[in-house]
Amino acid sequence: MRGLSVFNIVSLTLGFAFLYIPMVILVVYSFNESKLVTVWAGFSTKWYGEVIRNEAFLDAAWVTVRVAFFSATLATVLGTMAALAMMRRGAFVGRTLFSGMIYAPLVMPEVITGLSLLLLFIAIGLDRGVVTIILAHTTFAMCYVSVVVSSRLVSFDQSLEEAALDLGCTPFQAFWSVTLPIIAPAVIAGWLLAFTLSLDDLVIASFTAGPSATTLPIKIFSSVRLGVSPEINALSTIIIAIVTVGVLVASVVSKRQIAAARRDEVLAARA
Amino acid sequence: MVNELGFAPWDDPGAAPLIRIERVSKRFGDFAAIDDLTLDIYPREFFALLGPSGCGKTTLMRMLAGFEAPSAGGLVIDGQDMAGVAPNKRAVNMMFQSYALFPHLSVWDNIAFGLKRDRMAKPAIADRVDEMLKLVQLDGFARRKPHQISGGQRQRVALARSLAKAPKLLLLDEPLGALDKKLREETQFELMEIQEQTGTTFVIVTHDQEEAMTVASRVAVMEAGRLVQVDTPDRIYEQPNSVYVADFIGDVNLIEGRVGALGDTVRLDWAEGRSLTGQAGGALTPGAAATLVIRPEKIAIARDEPTEANRVRGKILDIGYLGNLSTYHVALPEGPVVKCSVTNRSRLSRRDFTWDDEVWVSWSDTAGLVLGA
């Protein structure tokens, strides 16, 4: 193995420092005894206790998870259907327009998406709350799902579905027993992406949330406006920990899959 | 092979065809992929659709499977009109060029897939799958996934899966295209054996003329959505009905000229004061343009003037050594180059002829065929 040159070491250090110093500070100060964020007064975990006892935070977290779950599920169903329609049905009238329109919300400023949804909900007289946030998140997340699923469908061998029809499946059975299991990794990836986007969203949620429901990002943002408290640091550290565990699990799983694929190749070569 | 056993339902006016294709056309926009095509295929036939890419052979096969609907004309399989019948409602199965094995299912489940759709009892499915695995000699591989077996084994799984439902008609779309030459040749004979064992009617699409000749009881040569000739492999080779078929199948010499005297054989005037004789392949009128079609293996090469009906003198331009044969390209002073192939029957590397030698090439008056242009 070759060693790293001085230049490599410096650039690595700078890069990682740029990325992680803000988070390290946040984590360190979450264990601060003092109520003042910028003054170190010894190690303590009391703010974690405060967070767990804070009903408002817990409520917001629960709302966020529910919203993310339902909007990701809805967006996955709709986005997958849109991707199938665009990739599979060949040329149909308005296909270019349709595919353009499905990707447009990806580049639309969130403020505009949020505002237009707010106007819609007011116009149809829908009270703002969990339902409106779910609808709003579904709207923008389904575009992402459809992009992810479409990219998988590009390399999907159409004859697999034809083979299923040929062997006696109805078109729906062919989709359910052949197409869906094969594109499942992309559909799951789309769901996870939609889930993450929903967890993360502040702008659209703040337009469409009502007094009856507040998501965690809104809650954090509004508390910070009154001053950063060590409690927020503790909450953020918990979120960082959850995300880190998630990423580690995902990378271990994918490494195992690559190893399994290698074993299969060896098996096929020997067969 | 089948022919030698006297299997020839197409010559029997009383035989009922399994497939009737009647004046079928298929248009994609302005392009006619199939153009007013009529064809009967009989039970237990191994029928080959042969032609260059884009000739419509795959479209015709997809219409039989039900993936495309004819723009005009009728399609009858086993007495049933196929108009509006979905692929899953046809007693027809297809083996796909890509094999289309379901990657998320094991070999066993791939073969059982179609049987499960038929709501067959579980023990019956297991028996049938085992039978199919034995048929294609894959007994030990039932639990493997498609990506855990070799290309040749995948091809067998695809075959077993498409035969599992005991279809009346099996369609094979370039089934051996992905295999290397040696494995392809072995598999051709296996396919023929399986076809005979199961008694299923096979329709194979291929662009490989050797493959079509080897496996098929009859071959249909297609060009631009039409059938040019439908015949047994030996007749396709020895009695082509057009220059197109002669040129598409195997190696051939084409000598152009005008029809001279007509009799038992035909005289073709091909150069100033020079003529050749051959058998008439179809109706000819004296004076009309025609082509003498002669296969390289029917031509002899000699240093001294031979006595055969057709003999011309030329100079060796090129020699191709293929191991089993050598091909000599002899340039005639009148212009054409005649290819002549000689079996290398002795291992001795004695060369009778070499480059630039003056030689005679000759063939009998029945060896060549004169076809109208």
Query: How far do the termini of chain B sit from each other?
Result: 33 Å
Structural class, judged by helices and strands of chain A? mainly alpha
> Strand count, sense and closure of the main sheet of chain B?
6 strands, mixed
Q: In which range does the helix fraction of chain A lie?
A: over 70%
Number of helices of chain A: 11
Largest interface: A-B, 23 and 31 residues
Please characterize this protein's 3D structure.
The complex is a heterodimer of chains A (271) and B (373). Chain A has helices spanning 6-30, 46-53, 55-88, 95-107, 110-123, 130-154, 158-166, 171-200, 203-208, 216-225, 230-270. With 271 residues, chain A is an all-alpha fold. Chain A has a domain at 55-237: MetI-like (MetI-like fold). Chain B has a six-stranded mixed beta sheet with strand order 6-7-8-3-9-10, with helices on both faces. Chain B has a five-stranded mixed β-barrel with strand order 11-12-13-20-14. Chain B is of the alpha+beta class. Chain B folds into two domains: 3-91 and 167-243, P-loop containing nucleotide triphosphate hydrolases (Rossmann fold, 3-Layer(aba) Sandwich), CATH 3.40.50; 251-372, Nucleic acid-binding proteins (OB fold (Dihydrolipoamide Acetyltransferase, E2P)). Chain B has helices at 57-65, 107-117, 122-135, 151-163, 181-198, 209-215, 233-238, 243-248, and strands at residues 19-28, 31-41, 46-50, 72-77, 80-81, 92-95, 169-173, 201-206, 218-223, 226-231, 253-262, 266-271, 274-280, 289-294, 300-302, 310-321, 325-331, 337-343, 358-363, 369-372. Chains A and B meet through helix 7, helix 8 and helix 11 of A and strand 6, helix 2 and helix 4 of B.
